[in-house]
Amino acid sequence: MNRILSTLLLSTVIAGAQEPDWKLEATAPFDPRDSQAECVFGDRLWIMGGWRSSYEAPPRDVWSSADGKHWLRVTAEAPWLHSDLAMSISFKEQMWIMGGWYNGRLPGHSASNLVWSSTDGKVWTQQGNAAWSPRIAAGLVEHQGRLWMLGGTENYYFGNDKSAKNDVWSTADGREWKLETAAAAWSPRAYHQAAVLKDRIYVLGGGNYVPTYQARNDVWSSADGVHWSQETASAPWEPRLWFSAVAYRGCLWVIGGWAKEEDNFGDVWYSANGRDWKKLATSHCWKARHEHSVLVSQGKLWVIAGHARPLSSEVWSLQLPANWKP
Hints:
Structural class: mainly beta
Number of domains: 1
Order of helices and strands: HEEEEEEEEEEEEEEEEEEEEEEEEEE
CATH architecture: 6 Propeller
Number of helices: 1
Strand content: over 45%
CATH superfamily: Kelch-type beta propeller
Radius of gyration: 20 Å
CATH class: Mainly Beta
CATH topology: Neuraminidase
Largest sheet: 4 strands, antiparallel
Strand order of the largest sheet: 1-26-25-24
């Protein structure tokens, strides 16, 4: 009996070692927000702008942290205006922020196709207007030494059913953009996510918000941004907008989000190929939320801020065990 109990206890310990847990690192000093720009640059986490209310201009502050616990306000007011649902990335030793929405539902609202870059988060250089139409909530990835812009919508609260896009653009320098395809095989969409895994670009979920709501859970991939294959028409995670996705530990990860029928999601899914998905089980997790930031740094997944009913400025991390396998 003792031997059987010992074996069961050992099995429980081994199984438990395989179950990672989220850790609350801090409640950051920046105002709670969602829809902010984010990137990892210079071994630091960066958060820029975002949304606090539909009836005020979006914030333009820039914050960074080396450990997720201690945050430095780099600037209170960057020169860019359109920081709500803008696209952001680290590329060629600079941080980039582009597109986005300004002024919520107030008069003078607009989308942008301006492209900005910075080496320190304080001084920003305007690289000009991109060739793609002003838009928000597109996918933005680095692939084969170029930036790739995928879809998005030209309007936010006031769009029509033709506002969503499925065009694909690329650039080697952030200034000269090439139209790779005016109509990719995936349907026009915004509030989706894009990530690169094993030298392929993936487009995941998303859809439309107004005037006709639609959410998807399909997954597409491409080696060249032009020719696309549907990996699945319906992943096991529920159709959603305003979620986050990244590549981490040889897998695609889908984290959180929102659907009209369900409200916020607090789930985490992963896949090594975009077709076969598993749900990550953890005993301690952040509150369900949408339009949060998800970053990969220091071997960890980071979930930062987002709309968790109410807005949040929490910083969470997850580090998978060394022997974790998908």
